[in-house]
Predict the structure.
Amino acid sequence: MWVRGVPSGARTRGPLQPRLLGFWHCRGRAASFYSASAEPSPVRALVYGNHGDPAKVVQVKNLELAAVGGSDVRVRMLAAPINPSDINMIQGNYGLLPQLPAVGGNEGVGQVVAVGSSVSGLKPGDWVIPANAGLGTWRTEAVFSEEALIAVPKDIPLPSAATLGVNPCTAYRMLRDFEQLQPGDSVIQNASNSGVGQAVIQIAAALGLRTINVVRDRPDIHKLTSRLKDLGADHVLTEEELRKPEIKTIFKDMPQPRLALNCVGGKSSTELLRHLAPGGTMVTYGGMAKQPVIASVSLLIFKDLRLRGFWLSQWKKNHSPGEFKGLILKLCDFIRQGRLTAPACSEVPLQDYQRALEESMKPFVSLKQILTM
């Protein structure tokens, strides 16, 4: 039996458990959605009752919608992406795990359909995104508390709104919080075609920073290189090219980077460290290679390099909701100015979720899978 929009037996755990309709297309096509209606409708959700292979444990379930209480907001989901953190959460190897059974998805954008009598900051028709991870956005509709949502402006493209709350925020904070970079300074990163990597390229360009972007070699490397340079990348290199002595010629017309952003680990992260300027910092925010970060003693002693980590969920714990809201609005300004676009995406109807999950876990995939409701 399913009640209140969640599986029966699922207990609440702080803000993770919800108490989240719509239709859009990415790749520049105009968004269109049905007018908000408070009439009950079947709620479909992608639910997993056990940790494991997402393609095997995620299933479509019909849920009953919760009643809207005084501080509640009924939201119709418009779109929700599949991020690596979503996959890791389903697999059970993420730092934040909801009570099972749970609805998948940590990010997305929805439209307010109805609000409770105590809600003051939201109204029907508003667009909203989750304030924190774990709400379960892979569903057509749900009821959340007002504090679990953040309003976003409706004058930004819907794909940008759907992918706003995780990757661009991570990119901006890493560029700002670890080194006092000035226009003209450079940054080096791996996994540059990832959602965070694409955001780093664009935000760095908006801040006047130059980027050295490392990617894995692939059959369509020239196409990828062209796309990343169109976003504002100064240099795009393969892992193999980064190891060649000729790489030093890059630093004839740009300073050595003082900041490295690592989402891979293993040999890739060691190469980033090798090219950091003395006193520089490498920030690790992912581990795609599932290998440890190895730093030579000589680099630590003679170059005084620093190794740090970043997790957006932890940043939120250390900062007020108002600060996160300010970050969201800052990124919205970049979007309006044309300086920040959504990552290259492929829209997939909710019922075709298995195809989207499989695509999101394939190697060398540069398109973010976005579920449309």
Remarks:
- The longest helix spans residues 321-336.
- Residues 168-313 form a domain with the Rossmann fold fold (CATH 3.40.50.720).
- The two ends are 23 Å apart (CA to CA).
- Residues 1-38 have pLDDT under 50 and may be disordered.
